[in-house]
Design a protein that fits this description.
The chain is an alpha+beta fold and 370 residues long. It has 16 helices and nine strands. The protein is 55% helix and 11% strand. The strands form two sheets. A seven-stranded mixed beta sheet has the order 5-6-4-3-2-1-8, sandwiched between helices. The protein has a two-stranded antiparallel sheet with strand order 7-9. The chain starts with a helix and ends with a helix.
């Protein structure tokens, strides 16, 4: 029996690969984005205002405020490496390029990235994040730290690092905000870990709510990829935030879109009351209910922040005209909201029935919030 032939029939690609660097490079690249996502989720749990930028000056930059006058910054260089823990020699090692000329060390490149920059006074921390961990002796013997600040490293080790950096960059004192971090996000299975952290965040913020953590994850990671690929510079802060940043409001909007305390069945009674007030016949009521269900599914399953802008426009039209509902009822509110919708949103909603269904859906949702 030709066993080799049988194996070939079972899987014709089951032979050693010539090149495996691609998947490893992709995994390292993806780790940075997932670490950024987890950093966002951590900031979201603790704050109601932040902006996170990907691939801007460093791998991940966190601003403590969306107000440029108040913002302070955290710079993070993120490395997914499987080597032994880095010691001071590895941090300051200068590899040679093709021309045999020495390149900058990992630490040297980080320090050059902030040297003499206009934002230096607003830096809270400069973090080197490495999955391999660090072998940097602490001042207090026996301590095993996952977050190591410069002030916690033994003086002899600090002197060795400082001497190597001075040799590389010239006289360059190590900044006090420099920190070395061993991340709690595993170097493998980080996608599932990120989804788990989303579930935890939703449970903390909306206990008992149903959510599609996987859909939230897909929207957020796709948007990070999209913004990370933007290579332009922006002189205006508002343009930078819009094109390169992910804000608290962005994340809250996605979580809200895929989280609900009650399903669409809880809308039934209110929907019946509104269609009765509208005086609809049975066939029109059935068509409107189907449009309502389509809208519900769209806002729960859509996977881009851009598409969610349509829902935000409908919400705004309902919100801005809600006093009409209080004074004159649902029919008047629907008419007022229709008139307030931008023309491009009306076109995206396809027809009058779909637009009415979207407004009714957001009206009922708002009433349930009250």
């Amino acid at each position: 029996m030709d066993t080799a032939h049988n194996r070939l029939q079972s899987n014709p690609l089951a032979s050693p690969q010539r090149e495996t660097a691609g998947p490893r490079t992709f995994e390292k690249y993806e780790y940075q984005y997932h670490w950024a996502l987890c950093r966002i989720l951590g900031a979201h749990e603790l704050s109601n205002d932040y902006v996170v930028f990907i691939e801007l000056h460093e791998d991940v930059v966190l601003a403590t405020s969306s107000d440029v006058a108040l913002a302070e910054f955290e710079f993070n260089q993120v490395k997914n490496v499987s080597t032994p823990p880095w010691n001071w020699r590895k941090l300051t090692l200068r590899p040679k390029g093709r021309t045999k000329k020495e390149k900058n060390s990992v630490l040297g490149k980080m320090l050059l990235g902030v040297c003499d920059k206009p934002f230096i006074d607003k830096l809270n921390s400069i973090n080197l994040v490495a999955t391999c961990g660090f072998n940097l002796p602490p001042k207090t013997e026996g301590l095993k730290l996952s977050i190591i600040s410069i002030g916690e490293i033994h003086d002899e080790c600090i002197n060795d690092i400082q001497s190597a950096i001075d040799k590389e960059l010239g006289s360059h004192p190590l900044p006090k905000m420099l920190t070395f971090i061993t991340p709690d996000l595993s170097s493998t299975g980080f996608q599932d870990a990120a989804i788990g952290r989303i579930s935890k965040l939703v449970e903390l913020s909306v206990p008992g709510a149903k959510c599609s953590a996987q859909s939230i994850y897909r929207v957020l990671i796709d948007d990070l990829h999209r913004k990370g690929s933007v290579a332009f510079d922006y002189t205006q802060w508002s343009n930078l935030v819009k094109n390169k940043g992910m804000t608290y409001q962005d994340v809250e909007r996605v979580i809200s879109a895929y989280t609900e305390n009650k399903g669409i069945e809880s809308f039934s009674s209110d929907f019946d009351n509104i269609t009765e007030e509208m005086g609809l016949k049975f066939n029109k009521k059935v068509g409107l209910r189907r449009a309502l269900e389509r809208y519900h599914n769209a806002v729960r399953l859509e996977r881009s922040l851009i598409a969610m802008d349509k829902q935000q426009a409908v919400k705004a039209a309902v919100e801005n005209n809600f006093s009409v509902f209080d004074e004159h009822g649902a029919v008047s509110l629907i008419e007022a909201a229709l008139g307030a919708l931008p023309e491009n949103v009306k076109k995206n909603l396809i027809d009058l029935e779909s637009a009415q269904a979207a407004i009714i859906y957001e009206l009922i949702s708002k009433c349930h919030e009250k």
